[in-house]
Design goal:
Arginase, Chain A; alpha/beta; single chain; 30% helix; 19% strand; two-stranded antiparallel sheet; 8 helices
Length: 273
């Protein structure tokens, strides 16, 4: 793994995690699975850079990163190394909340596989503008939930508004739950209580006016506060790992999407670590 660049995320310490770590951050610096516009490979370094512009304290969470033991373990630069690298981090800090930043959505299936090997009965909650149920596609990021479900891990996906006809037809056969809304019904929550949960956030779930820096923007999405409220509603579940994917810095020179990604990373750690 490469050291964090240009420096660790916000108040995190750089280096190898120890057993007492409350949260571990890892950058997934790869976008070889994109089907349209690349750039997500740059997200880990740029999110860290933009984290310098936000506070460690969250008024919403009423917690401060400075009061926590957070380690930034650096970057994985090959999709083939993701599963082994995450497994190693979980061995070093078995009780830590894991947050991965960066990469396209093809990084999620190997990450989920590594987490599922450590946490039996894992379920995935996804926030995404796309169904990602392709069986095969040039750019594996369009196959994410299909690949995860094929491994026997149930997927609950919120926010999709785009997909091929075949994907929409396959929703009842592949997904455990689908909703265009970000709100989680009580019936779904009851299915997730008591089991470990992996949350994957594709930044394109947000409207492009809010997060323009993504490879396949899809109009008609929610705003940032709606996403934060959906994440806050997950509190009380056993969320063991999260990822933030599909942020492509070159596609947003303003840095709006990067600032949003850094803030989102902070909130995830404060909510679930």
């Amino acid at each position: 793994m490469r050291r964090p660049a240009p420096f660790p995320f916000l108040a995190a310490k750089s280096g190898e995690p120890t057993p007492d770590a409350q949260a571990v951050i890892v950058g997934l610096a790869t976008d070889g699975g994109v089907s349209f516009r690349p750039g997500a490979v740059e997200a880990p370094a740029k999110i860290r850079e933009f984290s310098d512009s936000i506070e460690t304290w969250s008024q919403r969470a009423k917690r401060d990163l400075e009061d926590m033991r957070v380690v930034d373990a650096g970057d994985v630069s090959s999709r083939n190394e993701i599963a082994d690298s995450i497994a190693e981090l979980l061995d070093l800090a078995p009780n830590a909340f894991l947050l991965s930043i960066g990469g396209d959505h093809s990084v999620t299936p190997p990450a989920v596989g590594a987490v599922a090997a450590k946490h039996t009965d894992l379920a995935v909650v996804g926030f995404d503008a796309h169904l990602d149920l392709r069986e095969d596609y040039p750019g594996d990021h369009a196959c994410t939930y299909r690949y995860i479900a094929d491994r026997g891990v149930p997927c609950y996906v919120f926010g999709p508004r785009s997909g091929a006809r075949t994907e929409w037809n396959d929703v009842p056969k592949v997904l455990s739950h689908y909703s265009p809304s970000l709100d989680m019904p009580d019936t779904v929550r009851s299915e997730l209580i008591g089991r470990p949960v992996y949350v994957t956030i594709d930044i394109d779930v947000l409207d492009p006016s809010v997060a323009p820096g993504t490879g396949t923007p899809e109009a008609g999405g929610p705003g940032f506060n709606e996403l934060l409220e959906a994440i806050e509603a997950l509190q009380g579940l056993n969320v063991v790992a999260c990822d933030i994917v599909e942020i492509a810095p070159p596609l947003d020179p303003s840095g709006i999407t990067l600032g949003l990604g850094a803030l989102l990373a902070r909130e995830l750690i404060l909510r679930f670590a």
